[in-house]
Amino acid sequence: MQSRNPLRAALPLPRLLAFALVWWLISEGAAASWSIGVPAVLLASWLSARLLPPQRLTPSGLLRFLGFFLLHSLLGAVDVAQRAFRPARPLNPGMIDYSLQLGPGLPRVFMLNVVSLLPGTLSADLEADCLRVHVLDADQDNPAQLAQLEARVAGLFGLTLP
Amino acid sequence: MPDLYHALTLFLLLNLGAGLWRVVRGPTAADRMLAAQLFGTTAVAILLVLAQAGGVAALRDVALVFALLAAVAAVAFVRRAWPQPEDEHDRP
Amino acid sequence: MTGPDYLAALLLLAGALFFLAGTLGLLRFPDVYTRLHALTKADNVGLGLIVLGLSLQSGSWLVAGKLILIWLLVLLAGASVSHLIARGARLRGIPEWRR
Amino acid sequence: MSLLQTGIDALLALGLVWLAWRALACPDLFRGIVLFIAFGLLMALAWVRLEAPDVALAEAAIGAGLTGALLLAALARLNRIAPAGTRADTREAWRNAPALLLVLAGAGLGLAVLSLLPEPAGLQAQVAAELGRSGVSNPVTAVLLNFRGYDTLLEVLVLLLALLAAWSLEAEPPRREAAPGPVLDLLLRLLLPVLVLAAAYLLWAGAHAPGGAFQAGAVLGAAGVLALLAGWRLQPHLTGLPLRLAIVIGPGGFLLVAWALLLTGRPLLEYPPALAGALILLIETLATLSIAATLAVLFQGSRPAAEPPA
Asked: What is the chain C residue with the closest CA to D192?
């Protein structure tokens, strides 16, 4: 979608706000820092707009995704910790294929990254629409977990899965 | 609280030291590299704890730089230093 | 120590426990793929809990935000690097350990 | 100092010596590099414990981040020129040389520490007295860019010389590069703008806290290194004059300021106190650009003009 306003296309408002927030945080709120902060935020927003097309994140999708992500990454860490602490080292790894419903593009790559942070799954490769996942426990219902994650990622980006 | 911070730092350092065993043992280059990646995360944690313990805000900046550059060495490994899979076949 | 102090101390200790789990995984798990699981999960959550504990102690929203930003950067790097290493290991035919 | 702190310091000191020894003595170059990366991490923590956050920041940016990547790229190049099996291996005979070197260096350092005056006067008092006229409030930056600005000028020139040396070497033959893959691509697209912001922040922070042109340049240079690793290349029309300008603008601007000050009858690099802050910021901004460009181009190794058009 081509924006009619060239300035808004080069410096989209959500990016400006996001990078201004990042600057405010890393400078720990130092007011004097904005003399360099303003040009830096403009430059970073322009660069970011050139590198990544604008995304339509939905606030409700974001909240639901955050809750899901925080809970499940904690579960993932507990799961790995249990396996590491137990003397018997209960592992039953395997490699599974999962066909992605998400189309190519940023949401799919985002999903690839999140897969590695969630319980028992590690994204190992992507070929066409097939995501190869290394799992810690081949007996679990890993595809169902992945499908749940995929639905949350789709919700985050305001997409509906076919 | 200061004692807790320092005990935590010591504990994290010992973790890091134990991880060195994996660097020495390998067996593959990837094992050594991922151990180094783990050290980066541990170092960020240590720096943040020390920043709070000593009230030194600048240490958070050191941690920020570590976090920003955490991937650089590993990406250099994957893209350059890891022998290519086809290298064995097309060597004369 | 007051209530929030105890909570912070608890979070810091829990974080330390996950770091220990990550190191144990690194040392005890049988192949590069399973070790990557330990790298991306235990240590990142360990750092997250430590960040949470320190945020409580810092008493400043700004510092808390900066700590969370640092955590997100480490998450991004960790997830990306472990995918790159897992993919590279598969391409190079590093065998998987099976029970 | 509590027992815990002593424990931390002892562990750091032992770890550093052990890592230095292992990195030098281990027969496998790759393992040596990984040990060196770990050494850089511990070194940054040691600087923190020595209450030198300025040096810790520089070590984090250069030691832990860029040096590792540079060494790994150098190893890859070495392996292409002379695969591991074909290199003349002199290390076996020299196995104990690092130990000897460590003992000598340790003895020298020990002697130096023992011969220190019990209460060395140092120059802190003089620096503190003049800080108000330096234009900045971070004493390290005041020394590096004002009181001893010529040191920094020469350092920037040394970096330029290193680049000239690299560029006068034979260009590397082009090599096949696998596609970066979507994950590395997204990492770059997310990280590059944040690296730009962080570099600007470190540049600003240098005036009153740890930071400055070298740290900012290293962070920005890392952005360039990551882009090169993902296979991104400068567009051909930028590899000529624009790139060279970016490389020389730092030392060039520094020299111009020094020259202009000499013309007004001042000693070398003695800024008028009213202008000092602005001049230091100008020099540091230009130096940041040049340091970043130089580090990224050094990582690439050969002249970008020698690259075949992609």
From this structure: C73
Residue D284 in any domain: the answer is: yes
Here the ipTM equals 0.92
**Phi-psi sector, D3: left (phi>0), alpha (psi -120 to 50), beta:** alpha
Residues in B touching A26 (Cβ below 8 Å): 61, 64
Q: Which residues of C touch D (CB under 8 A)?
A: 73, 76-77, 80, 83-84, 87
Residue A28 at interface with chain B, using a CB cutoff of 8 Å: yes
Among all residues of chain C, which has the CA nearest to that of B72?
Answer: C77
In the complex, which subunits touch A with 3 or more CB pairs below 8 angstroms?
B, C, D
Is D191 in Cβ contact with B75 (below 8 Å)?
no
Q: What is the pLDDT along chain D (310 residues), one digit of tens a residue?
A: 688 889 999 999 999 989 988 888 888 889 999 999 999 999 999 999 999 999 999 999 887 778 999 999 888 888 887 776 666 555 565 667 777 887 898 899 889 888 877 776 777 888 888 887 787 888 888 888 888 888 888 888 999 999 988 888 877 666 677 788 889 999 999 999 999 999 999 999 988 888 888 899 999 999 999 999 998 888 777 878 888 899 999 999 988 988 888 888 887 777 888 888 888 888 889 999 999 999 998 888 777 654 444 4
SS3 string, D182-227, reads HHHHHHHHHHHHHHHHHHHHHHHHCCCCCCCHHHHHHHHHHHHHHH
Mutate to test the interface with A, among C11, C31, C40 (most CBs of A within 10 A): C40
Domain positions in chain C are 3-91
Quick check: is D72 in a domain? no
Helix (H) or strand (E) holding B77: none
* Local structure of D113: helix, strand or coil: helix
For residue A27, the chain B residue with the least C-alpha distance is B61
* Residue D288 covered by a domain: yes
Task: Tally Cβ neighbours within 10 Å of residue C90.
Answer: 18
The amino acid present at B3, given as its one-letter code, is: D
> Do D186 and C80 make contact, defined as CB atoms within 8 angstroms?
yes
Of C16, C22, C27, the CB nearest to B11: C16
CA torsion sign for D156, D158, D164, D167 is negative
D200–A contact, CB cutoff 8 A: yes
Total domains present in chain D? 1
For D247, the domain range is 139-310
- Residue-wise pLDDT tens digits, A76-110: 999 999 999 988 878 889 899 999 888 888 889 99
Provide the pairing of β-strand A130-135 with A121-127: antiparallel
Crossing angle of helices D29-49/B58-68, nearest 10°? Answer: 160
Chains contacting B (3 or more CB pairs within 8 Å)? A, C, D
- pLDDT tens digits along B44-59: 999 999 999 988 889 9
Closest CB from B19, B45, B70 relative to C26: B19
Sign of torsion over alpha carbons D221, D225, D231, D236: positive
Tell me the count of C-D CB pairs closer than 8 A: 16
Does the beta carbon of C30 lie under 8 angstroms from any beta carbon of chain B?
A: no
**Domain assignments of chain A as residue spans, ordered by start:** 6-51, 59-156
Find chains touching chain C: ≥3 CB pairs under 8 Å: A, B, D
Within-domain flag for D294: yes
